Structure formats: C-alpha cells, structure tokens
Amino acid sequence: MSDSKIKIMFLGDIVGKTGRLAVKRYIENLKEDKPDFIIANAENASHGFGLTQKNYNELISYGINAFTSGNHIWDKRDIFQYINEADKLIRPINYPKGTHGEGYRIFETSKCKIGVINVLGRTFMGLIDSPWEILTKTIEEIKKETPVIIIDIHAEATAEKICMAKYYAKLGVSGVFGTHTHVQTADERIYEGCCAYITDAGFCGDLNGVIGMDYESSVNRLLTSIPERLDVAASGDSQVNGVIVTVDCYSGKSEVIERINEKYISEEI
Predict the structure, then answer these.
(1) What are the backbone angles phi and psi of residue 118, rounded to the nearest 5°?
(2) Lower Cβ count inside 10 Å, N or C end of the chain?
(3) For residues 70, 71, 76 and 82, what is the CA-based torsion angle, rounded to 10 degrees?
(4) DSSP label at residue 74
(5) Rounded distance, CA 88 to CA 57, Å?
(6) Which CATH topology does 5-206+237-268 take?
(7) Per-residue DSSP letter, 119
(8) Neighbours of 137 (CB within 10 A)
(9) What are phi and psi of 5, to 5 degrees?
(10) Which of 58, 144, 72 lies closest to 106, judged by CA?
(11) Active site members
C-alpha cells in the first residue's frame, strides 16, 4: 500500500475472555495483511462488564493500538486507578468536565497521525451531556494536527448514529462507527465522499450466546423480570466483527470500507 494511504481496522465490542482470545487469533492470522492501525471497543472485555488493567495490557500485547469504550467502562473498580495513565484508552467525551480519563487522543503512526474520539449517544441511554458542541470543537482542534479522524459512537438508536455520521461527514471526518448493540449491521457506506460509516460494527465474542452473554441467564431475565447476574457465554464457538477502512493520509478521506465477520467453530479447530 502507498505511504499516502493508511489501513485502519476497527473492531466491535470485545466481550469477555472469549472475545479477547478470538481477537488475538484473528490478529495473529492476519500476518502480512495486518493493518497499519487497530482500534477496538473494549468496554466489555473483562467478563462482559468493564476493563481491568490486566486485560487492558493483555489486549495491547495482541497489537491493538487504541481502545474506545462506552457506558460500561466504569464497571470495574480499578479503572479509576489506571485510566488517567492509560495512554491508549479513551472514554466517552461527553461525560462532564473533570471525569477521569480522556475523551479523545491523537496517535502517531509511521504514515500519519490519527485522531480517535469516543462519544455516547443519548437516546435510550443514561443521563449524559450533549455530544454535538463538544464534538464539533474537538474535531476542529484535531484538524490542526491531522485530517484523519475516527469517531466511535456508542449508542442504542440507529437514527442518532446516522444523523451523527451525516453531520460530521460534512466536517470531513474519516469514519463514524457505531457500537453498543453488539449486532453487526450491513449498511457500510461512505458519506460525502470522505466518511466511512456503519451503524454497528458488531462484537467479538461467543457466537452462540445472546450478544456475547449466556443464553440461560439472559432468557430468565425476560421470562421472570427478576434481575439476574449475566455470565459471558462459553460455547466454544466465537466471532470477530468490525470494519477495515482505507484512508488517504493527506485529505483524511476514506476510500474503502469492508466489513469483518469472521467465525471460529470449535469442531473445525
């Protein structure tokens, strides 16, 4: 690939040990085809809820360069002990001023700098600040250093994700990728000739559970309406979901977006 083009991989929510191991296997199998930069949503990487420092370091060792998150990033108590020093981890930018961690980071690569922003949607989600003004200001700030900008919108509502992609495509961002629902959508496209988009990148984890979690505990919640601890599914089969985009380093325009939907069936191993 030309030095003016950069290949960026974005992986959907990693769920538990099953997801971590599936991602490790997928990246190892890429070999010579490994992208220039890998981003992964890791808010569910530690037993389905939150991200421990141990698992953060483990995922870095697999070759992941940056981590986005979401509403579950605070679920493991040790997050408050290490997030301020975790220079590859990004929490949603629209938490109130003074919240631990950073809502965006600019990363150096051998080809160009990449700005990565994480944001929470507000429809059907918890109380959170509006993302619109702070995102616009942040994009303007990042553009002083690089035209390559990726946004992870962690949100429930499809309409909210599409509106955000269309709105920020007009400001020239390189990609807006949805996370949170754990179900990969088939609507990948490029808006305004520059912004790669998918409503939900999907998830990395157990293939046969319920969005990565155990079926029995999930269905019991629905049948009884009684809260029950959710455990990560462990059927032996797994999947890796995400997208790969090719971006021009000088213009920041995405040229190609391809979905990742890899499955590992235990009987075939």
Answers:
(1) -120, 135
(2) C
(3) 50
(4) T
(5) 10
(6) Purple Acid Phosphatase; chain A, domain 2 (3.60.21)
(7) E
(8) 11
(9) -115, 140
(10) 144
(11) 72
Q: Which residue has the tokens 């919108």?
A: 153
Closest alpha carbon to 5 in 259, 253, 258: 253
Amino acid at residue number 5: K
> Global pTM?
0.96
44-53, 122-131, 243-252: segment of lowest average pLDDT: 122-131
51-82 as b/e: b if 16+ CB within 10 A:
bbbebbebbeebebbbbbbbbbbbbbeebeeb
| Longest CA–CA separation in the chain, Å | 57
Return all residues near 147 (Cβ < 8 A) that are at least 6 apart: 172, 174, 249, 250, 251, 252
Tell me what pLDDT residue 205 has. 98
Mean pLDDT to the nearest integer, 156-163: 97
What pLDDT score was predicted for residue 151? 98
Sequence-distant (6+) residues with CB within 8 A of 173 are 139, 149, 150, 151, 194, 195, 252
CA angle 42, 47, 53 (to 5 degrees): 55
Whole-angstrom CA distances from 145 to 39, 105, 107, 112, 113 are: 19, 11, 10, 10, 7
The predicted pLDDT at position 32 comes to 82
Strand partners, 151: 117, 176
Within 13 Å of residue 69, how many CA atoms lie on the same side as its CB? Answer: 31
**Do the beta carbons of residue 149 and residue 139 sit within 8 Å?**
yes
Confidence of residue 269 (pLDDT cuts 50, 70, 90): very low
Specify whether the CB–CB gap between 133 and 142 falls below 8 A. no
Tell me the C-alpha distance between 223 and 267, whole Å: 32
